[in-house]
Each structure stands twice: as C-alpha cells, then as structure tokens.
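We now fix the convention by which a protein and its fold are recorded. Think of the row as the fold of the chain written in a discrete alphabet. Here is one such record, which you should read through line by line.
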Amino acid sequence: MAHVDPAHLVELALRNATPTDADAEALRHVERCDRCRDELRVLLRVVTAARTAHLVDLPATPPERVWRRISRDITHDTTPPGPPPVIPNHGRRALLTLLALFALAAATGLAAARWSRHRRSNGRSG
C-alpha cells in the first residue's frame, strides 16, 4: 500500500478541515505504518509548538529579509515585495504570533513537498 502523501499528513496535523473519507483512510494507514505514524507525530509536534508559541518565545522579531524570503517562497514570486505594513502596537503581538504560525506552517509544507519530490526523484515510491 502506498504511503500517505506528505501534504495530506500536513493537513491531518493541522486539522483545519472537516474530516473526509480520505482522511479516515489515511489515518487507518497511519495506524499500521510506522513511517507515516512517525511523520504525522513530528508534524503534530510542530503544529502544537506553533499554535502555542508566543511572541516572547521568539528570541527577537525576525528581520525583514526573513519575511521577504518567506513571501517569495510561498508565492514563487521573483520580484521583491514592498515594505511590510506598519502594525499598531496593540495588535502587533497577536499578528506577529499569527505570522510566526503561518511561517512555520508554510515551512512545514515546503519541507514536506521538497521531501516528497526528493523521494520521487530518487525512484522511491513508498
């Protein structure tokens, strides 16, 4: 049986959508497959860490170049983005936390996609 697609494992870890029959089938596979179970466990830890992160958990506000790189990687855009918007102080903490969560989720998704491409390019189907 084929392993669960890494992107599907990310979706299962995020738990943002209403579960589907495909999710139930994937979870049945995860119960029997050590590799998929381990991958889902790691993704769940990442999601939990991201969702419980606070601004004080960050050593410093990430530099603007980090946000530019994340934006470029997500949109696959080669033009440099404009300056970040000015954020009022009262909502800045919540917004920065959300941005950190988004960045972590995006990085996880990108890593899963790259891993999957790497596995396919090496001739490993599962």
In short: The radius of gyration is 17 Å. The chain is about 65% helix and 0% strand. Residues 89-121 form the longest helix (33 residues). The helical segments are 6-14, 21-32, 34-51, 64-75, 89-121.
